[in-house]
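#struct-pred
JK: can someone run the complex with zinc ion? inputs below
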Amino acid sequence: MLVSLRHAVECAYGQDWSGKSRIAVVRDLTSAQITDNPISLARIVNQFLQPTIDLNIIRVGADLFFGSYEQKIEFAIQQTRVLFALVDLRLGQINQLFINSNDTFYVIDDHAEAEALTEDWSFPNKAIDVFFVHAYLGDTVGRSAINGSCDKQSLGEMTGCVIALEHTEEITALALAHEIAHYLGLRHHGDPHNLMHESLPNGGRLETNQAEVMKRHCFVYPECRAR
Ligand SMILES: [Zn+2]
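RT: done, structure tokens with the ligand placed:
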């Protein structure tokens, strides 16, 4: 990928410099100090290139949420951020969304219902849809497509993740990271310490080769999108 320095600086500092001023690299042979606040080019470019995913956090039956649910969601996002950061995958924008209880079912009876929920309520952007429901009957904590589509209009498959909020904070957090990893292409792993072990709680670890698979998914983008 070709990165212009100007674009990288604009991105890192969240400003649009066009038409206002030019970024000039000053070469001053008489002084080691060029600016009062030296900027590491490597840091800017690394930030520019860091693989990032965005999430739509969709609360299903939000009007009937219990007090602990918001806390569980917040904890799950933070834990997922930490687990993914260990393999250099970043959580970017987190969009907060709600569906009320009279608009759809918030207790999932079977996998067909989970699939229907993601199809019916997909949010039209390039973020992964994560539906937090009150409960999922049976022994399922969460469910996702494996290597999910980036076309959320595609039919006949899950176009997001569904996670039940009825479990502990720890299980909910691991379920969020686990289901997102499924969506990004990972299958189950035999090691009970691995995030992709099918029973929760597991050890939450990700191997480098698993991270490489996730980073190739079409929803993963460099932090600063090309304009
Ligand atoms: Zn799984």
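RT: quick notes.
The helical segments are 5-13, 41-49, 67-85, 111-120, 169-183, 208-215.
Residues 178, 182, 188, 198 surround zinc ion (CB under 6 Å).
JK: thanks, will look after standup
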